[in-house]
Amino acid sequence: MDLKGRKVIALGERDGVQGSALAECAASAGAEVVLEMTHCFV
Amino acid sequence: MTTLEQPVVRGARFFLAHTPGLVRYGSRPSRDIAHEPSLEAQIGARLRVFAEAAAYPPNQTMLGRLSPDALAKLPRPWFEHRAGVERWGPHGEIMPEEEFFALLMVFDSAGLVSLSEDFAATIRPALQAHPLLTEGDIARLKGVAEARIEETLRGTLPALPLRGREGRRIGCIRGDHAEDNTLFPDVLLENLACKVTAIMALRALLEQEKVDLRKVGYVLNSGEEAVGDRYQRGGGNLAKAVAEMSGCSCATGVDIKGFCCGPVHALALASSLVASRVYDHVAVVGGCSLAKLGMKYRGHLDAGQPILEDTLVGAAVLVSADDGRSPVFRLDSLGRHTVEAGSSQRAIFEHLVSHPLRRLGLKFLDIDRFATELHNPEVTEPAGSGNVPLLNYRMLAGLAALEKEIDPGDVERFVAERGVTGFSPTQGHIASALPFMAHAVDGLREGTLRRTLFLAKGSLFLGRMTQQADGLSFILERNGR
């Protein structure tokens, strides 16, 4: 998927991939990260 | 100059309370019921009876009647398993909700809880038969007329009815201020339940270890409750309230807060206090998380299974000066997730596992068992949260492979042999490594274990004051003296 110029919401989880890591990946692929958040589901 | 003492972990005990009647007051169910009142009946129809919760294999693993490895071999669903109903195990007890409601009154020091005369009279013999309750405790159980309960529920202060699994009202808990939401009855119920579960776990532990109560110098409470009022929200020191009701009359204490990582921080501090000879015995406690009852009830209803988040848990661990037989808490093994570490899973595991192992000249395979997030997958999977322990162990095994300490083909074997099957109720800080502590102490004292590593992670970002996560780890190993 080409993320260049796309808006991205990065929702991560504590025991998986965290929001900050998702956001960094998306930004490096040219996306604009409009919301970054990490949740804990336990 | 005084030399350092060697801290050891003398023991760990758990107190489980099966409280299906309180599921309606869990955070998720209470918010949903407020919007959709008919949900209360749907939830009620899926709540377990005590015999089912007591026989439930993961609960029996908490109580030490079943090992995590034996649990892993049992076919799922575990909730269909019909083993014998066992209230007591080598690591603690599971109490029926009627007795727990009575304990809410017994350990209520502010006159918040009222129970009906009928209920108090019916439950008194059960409390009298309990080996950890005294005559003084039972004397605090006093019923009131139904009319008084009605009056309290309709009074000027907010109040909540206390109902059992089948909906029968047995009493109520009132708030203690008309405008202060930190003293509303839902918050006070959470705090009181936390206190009761921590007291009962600590009483069981101190009874088991035959420690002179006057020699317990300090109690560290590591739960996730927030005790306080409008001017000092979360002011805390539930530790001292627990010490007071556990016979530790020469102790003071303090709360150590760190989300799910709180207990591991508290254990490290307790060991430091023992090592520096400030105290001979430090108790670390963590009460329950009532807010998490029924947290994933929607997934359970959708799956047509019982609502499994119906059990509160309190834990207690005793850290003492070296007795020559209990496992050694290695203060030189602390792994810390530092501010500069970054929050990727790899960074967290490197700081909590790779770095301390390297510092001590140890390899991943020198650790017999790693204890980390031990949430019961049967609770989390139907709600889409996956098998949390398995996710963590695969990450850990992947790191071992990356560091060329195991072959990539051995990842699953590493997980099976050095991980621990999840068996803990989703009780926040309780589920983070702590449930394995009593099994580890047994295995390191008399079993086949030589060295175990405990690691916990804290979701600090949930409080909106930082985007940081946190983590701490330590090694517990066989006493070589």
Describe this structure in words.
The complex is a heterodimer of chains A (42) and B (481). Chain A has one helix at residues 19-28, and strands at 7-13, 32-39. Chain A is α+β, with helices and mostly antiparallel strands and 42 residues long. The model of chain A has no long low-confidence stretch (mean pLDDT 90). By secondary structure, chain B is α/β, with parallel strands linked by helices. Chain B folds into 2 domains: 7-321, no CATH class; 328-477, Thiolase/Chalcone synthase (Peroxisomal Thiolase, Chain A, domain 1), CATH 3.40.47.10. Helices cover 36% and strands 19% of the residues of chain B. Chain B has 18 helices and 15 strands. Chain B has helices at 27-35, 39-44, 50-55, 57-62, 68-73, 97-106, 117-128, 135-139, 146-153, 185-209, 238-245, 262-275, 297-302, 345-360, 377-380, 388-402, 411-418, 437-445; strands at 7-18, 88-89, 92-95, 113-116, 143-144, 159-163, 169-174, 216-221, 252-255, 281-286, 311-321, 328-336, 369-371, 451-458, 470-477.
The largest contact between protein chains, plus residue counts on each side, is: A-B, 12 and 22 residues
| SS strand fraction of chain A | 35-45%
- Summarize model confidence as the mean pLDDT of chain B: 97
Number of domains of chain A: 1
User: Alpha-carbon distance between the termini of chain B?
Assistant: 23 Å
- How are helices and strands ordered from N to C of chain A? EHE
The pLDDT mean of chain A sits at 90
